[in-house]
Structure to design on (187 residues):
């Protein structure tokens, strides 16, 4: 969507493209499906963070689908999915106990770069934009609150990733067990 219509970036609040609209609709469907899958498969307790994230995404995306405003902001937030590729590769490498640590090491650094480029940078830009340019009432206030909560979650996940991959000695608690329990970014 952004590749074919780069002019959208000049109007985050009211920019519109059919491909962006369809992307947000499809993503909303994915979040709804994944939420129902977590609930129906009795994974709510262990996946409560995902449920919170999904509820935030669904409510924000549905509000902008209905109003037609902030579509570009949603498309920018969906850039996060690019970094998920490398997080998933990381998880698969850890689960498969690949005998060659070189592949894991390479992915570790690529993952860090992608996390900055596709998670932290768009999130920081949108937070700045919303705090500076968007009205603090109605839908703007609702989306700003969602962004700030998402900021906290992304920074929490980032700290887990750094502790796990770059500072493993900080992972262990005093009793020798993981501080964060069974979090996928740690394990």
């Amino acid at each position: 969507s952004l590749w074919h219509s780069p002019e959208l970036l000049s109007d985050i609040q009211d920019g519109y493209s059919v491909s962006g609209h369809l992307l947000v609709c499809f993503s909303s469907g994915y979040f709804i499906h994944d939420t129902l899958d977590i609930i129906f498969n009795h994974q709510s307790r262990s996946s409560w963070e995902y449920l919170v994230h999904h509820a935030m995404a669904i409510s924000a995306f549905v509000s902008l689908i209905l109003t037609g405003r902030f579509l570009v902001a949603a498309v920018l937030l969906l850039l996060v999915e690019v970094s998920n590729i490398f997080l998933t590769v990381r998880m698969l490498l850890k689960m498969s106990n690949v005998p060659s640590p070189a592949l894991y090491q390479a992915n570790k650094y690529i993952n860090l770069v992608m996390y900055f480029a596709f998670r932290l940078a768009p999130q920081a830009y949108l937070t700045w934009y919303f705090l500076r340019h968007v009205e603090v009432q109605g839908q703007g206030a609702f989306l700003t609150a969602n962004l700030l909560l998402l900021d906290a979650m992304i920074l929490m996940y980032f700290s887990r990733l750094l502790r796990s991959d770059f500072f493993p000695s900080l992972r262990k608690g005093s009793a020798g067990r993981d501080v964060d329990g069974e979090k996928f970014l740690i394990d």
Notes: The chain has one domain: 18-166. The radius of gyration is 18 Å. DSSP finds six helices and no strands in the chain.
